Amino acid sequence: MTQTMPPRSTPAPEPHQPVPQDPPWPRRLVAPARRSDGPPRWRIGPSVLGLLAGWVALFSWRMLVAEPADFLAPALVIGFLVVLVGAGLRTLLVEPYAVAAAQVVATLLAVNVAVADDSSWLHLVPTRTSVREAAFAIYNGAATLGHYTSPVSENPAHTRAFLLVCALAVLVSIELIITWLRILPLVALPLLITLSVPVSILVDALSAPIFVLTALLFLRLLATDQLDRLRSWGPGGSAPPRSVTVVLWTISAVAVVGALVVSPLVPVTNLLERGVGPGPGSGGTGTYQLTAVNPMVRLRRDLVEQTQTPMVYAETDARDTGYLRTTVLDRFTSRAWQTSERLLPPDNDADGDFPAPPGLGPNIGGAEEDWQLQLAPAYTTTWLPLPYPLREVDVEGNWRFDSRTLDVALVGGRATRELAYSATSFTPRVTAEVLESTLGAPARVRVPNTALPEDLPPVIAQRAREVTSGAETNYQKAVALQNWFRQDGGFEYSLEQRSGSGLQLLADFVTDDRVGYCEQFAAAMAAMARTLDIPARVVVGFLDGEEQLDGRILYTSDDRHAWPELYFSGVGWVRFEPTPGQRAGATPSWTRQSLDNPEASAPTPEAAATPSTDPNAAEDDADRGSGSGVDVPWIALAVLAVIALAGLLPALLRRLQRRRRLSGDDLHELSEGAWDELRATALDLGLDWPERRSPREQAKVVIHQVRTGPEEVRALKGLLTQVERSRYGPDGDVPADAETRARTVETVARWRAVLRSSVEQGRAWRGRLWPGSLIRGRRR
After folding, report:
1. Positions of E strands within 109-164
2. Which pTM does this prediction carry?
3. 635-644: per-residue pLDDT in tens?
4. 397 to each of 47, 49, 62, 387, 394, how far by Cα in Å?
5. How many angstroms separate the CA atoms of 610 and 559, rounded?
6. How high does pLDDT run on average in the chain?
């Protein structure tokens, strides 16, 4: 009996297995975020939403400067450029931390181009000079915004640089939160910081349209995240139902409307006005205090910059126009001369009659003069420039005066642009004989106005006693101090003196340095007068202006000045002039009169020369811009954008090519596209690909060049079988089903990663950025 053996069955080919999502090989800088139904994808939508939300929020800063478009427009351009850089690198599957670093570098390069392109190599590449110039512009812009009244029109090039850097910090932080941290609710933090600026710094409240649009964009960004989550739950990554989108938008709108309704119910206080209880005659409305930034800083900056910016226009019938006052610094601290808190009750409305100046007796004769004044377009202020003393002021707005100092401050709202107002001044007839015969100041004036810091260097009082050793009265001591600064002390006027009025600097000024400008002279004389028990304070304002062709007097930024006022009972606060004549001109007539025959002593005119300035510094200021219009380097920014796009263009073309190859409708087109993509990847990385060989021999050559495991080899064999069947089999033109398409795409993605991991990092990067397959042509 013959034993029949069962027929030996041929083992079935091993099915083509899907590739796991987490490959075991090192990925280096590659982060392939893959989907199961297609090639790696990135979405630019959230980044654009974040950019628009941040940029709209930045519109709340528009009142910081006179020309907000100078920083808002380039911020949008640079922000969009940064988004494009990030999108392009994510297209190349670069790790998030590398994308973030590249975006930060791109931002710094763009800032260098926007701020210091003239000092950059080829107007693009930073140099040591351009970096130093950019740092100075940003620092100086911050100082300008910190000490000038908004909207700031002074030093526009530097304020633009600082605001541009701040705006880009907001936009880039939003981009990094979205694309790197991927915690979209954290975007609220930079948005809230941005929107808090007008609430904490500016007088005006936050604009409702800006808040609404920013909130809607932010909520739409959050909705995008939720929609992505819902899409991932759907079959094949399909879009969620329309009803879900409607619900999300409805919730966003309700949240914004609720915020607008509730916010007026929250009690807040004005940061400039602070109620301290009802005051006399206030009608129960309360007395207000206003604390201002030290005006010395603004004076110092204007004098150093020498921009000759128009500030005030005036018309008057006064025979001697004198000085215009803006602010009184009556508080002497260890840091500087400062303004004390101003008591500004509603009864002290500046629009009307003014009280008699403190200390001015009824027997002092004088003359009244009419003034018509107007602020220049580039000048904004919270202190109203006025002559002193005053009888009456006619001005619109919430301006109030302090009864002790009679300077006029704005306590709410914003001053009208090019504000026009009028005043009636009173010029008392002050003579040396009158000042010589005055009595001591009352305690209510003397005590606060002779107060000295506890750490005042003793050398200041010692030098004051030495200078006034032969004087007997307060008037004689005041004249001796003035003459010492002007003539006998060997002082020199110069803008090169170190800024500030700190106590040690003040001591150095009256002992060794003896070089400075009006700030140092006024501060030193007032301090020395206080050590002699003479009430003294410092006043900031303008020197005599220059008459124009139309008959008006123009006061510019170069005319800013500071001088001391000393108190004499029966006359009040009297001006003295310690600054040398090359800057301040003649001293007041009552300081040059003879006590024996005051009327016979005619004023001796002194040379009033304009202080010399460094022409190079003037040219630098002109280059940086002194007007409201600032040229934005659009050409350089456009060149940067073109270079960035050109560098990413080959990689983008390869990605589009890969998408097209893997989107074939039938099995033959899909298989050939997948095999073409493997060939292109090998050529991009500089690997061998035998063009005139069969697919099986090509697969063997590729396998021998890489480090791989059995699963990758099995997947490649499955794709090879699919290619051979599509070429040589009868079913090559049949449609490709969803399972075959997903398996093919996954195999290509797995082997592209295998090929990249088998070469050194430099070759891998070159293969991504400059793929050689684009110029090798299609395979034969």
Report:
1. none
2. 0.47
3. 556 666 666 6
4. 44, 41, 22, 19, 10
5. 10
6. 75
